[in-house]
Here is the input.
Amino acid sequence: MKITYTLENNLDPNEFLEVLISSGLGERRPIQNFARISAMVKNSNLIITARKELKMIGVARSITDFAYATYLSDLAISKDYQKQGIGKELIRLTKIASKQAKLILLSAPAAVEFYPRIGMTQHPHCFYLDDVADII
Here is the structure.
């Protein structure tokens, strides 16, 4: 069966949740909080999916201005379909959809070696803040 890739900015949050769980990425996402998962989908403006027949097997969820920066916040491929080039194709299609913007992502620990192999450059200066109380 052929895999189809589609821009789906109105993605069903239940499908998104299912792929997060089946990919292993759910370990680092708020999968127990469906309202938050729904907000993650609703507030994204570039979502590309991979489907086999009608079943979603992969997703690239991004936030972008389409001109300067695209933050690829979730790249999830169901474990049964990993290592088949689906993630690479989702990244390629995300970059095509926001061609002027620099594509940026934070890697899951298990995927750190994947991104340089497909041509992405690692950046040494990334910072994040989880809690405003941490600002000193």
About this structure: The two ends are 54 Å apart (CA to CA). The longest strand covers residues 55-64.
